[in-house]
């Protein structure tokens, strides 16, 4: 039996997204400020009640491209001569496109940015009474011992010290939230990598940092207080511990979706092998093509899932 047959049982419409905040019940309306949406100003149930997948990626342009790719793939029609609307355009923060049951949203750079977006998107799912949505992050990363263009499905998101939890400071206290990603979803995605794909798709551990330069052991930032030997020692240690890539959102993405009971996956392409350098020097056309790769994989997943409904 294919996983999608099994999966259909699991995706029976059984549970809507829950928020872990009783205060929301006491509010007469909830303004999702950074999405330019609100439970009082919009009929969120009518607008988003049919959502099944939420795909997040760094830039507005990439998410718009992804939305148009999806439109093609799932034959989603909009009136001739019209374009997809950026639903969150008046926030001037994030961009959001809806293609049938798929939301495509840009998350910006880093954990604070994706964290704010997750709070509001999870609340959006709650207000819209969405049933069992699956969240994806499709992004870019630095490879550890992997050439540029490799697709990595994260099996675990860890911080720079290899701990699998997000540390938040709440009311002056440190709170830890486990960063758990869905194992089955990872293997389902991996099974959709095709033998003809001219690049490898692997599953592995992802380190998530709060900085692109010093935080990722780069020597080409404005500041650097470590030596080349120390840099290599750290990156080799990551490799030894099963880390395949480094990026800047997976930890918050995994921890906050898990906290909300939402199934999630992180799929990133590598833009370089960090064991060989720091600078991203490939031509724009090459980088553009590489960035399509995680999109293709997630698209295959969504398409296959929708074709079984
Ligand atoms: C990957 O690329 C960005 C930094 O260039 C960051 O958002 C990430 O995780
Ligand atoms: N994104 C990152 O966070 N790091 C890289 O090296 C490349 C992309």
From TrEMBL:
Pfam family, one: PNP_UDP_1
CDD domains: UP_hUPP-like (cd17763)
Residues holding phosphate: 93, 137-140
Domain named Nucleoside phosphorylase: residues: 52-303
InterPro entries: Nucleoside_phosphorylase_d, Nucleoside_phosphorylase_sf, Uridine_phosphorylase_euk
GO biological process, any: uridine catabolic process
Record-level GO cellular component terms: cytosol
Binding site for substrate: 216, 218
Entry-linked SUPFAM superfamilies: Purine and uridine phosphorylases
Bilayer-crossing regions: none
GO MF annotation list: uridine phosphorylase activity
PANTHER family on file: FI09636P-RELATED, URIDINE PHOSPHORYLASE
Similarity comment: Belongs to the PNP/UDP phosphorylase family.
Entry-linked NCBIfam families: euk_UDPppase (TIGR01719)
Name the UniProt record assigns to this protein: Nucleoside phosphorylase domain-containing protein
Species: Acyrthosiphon pisum
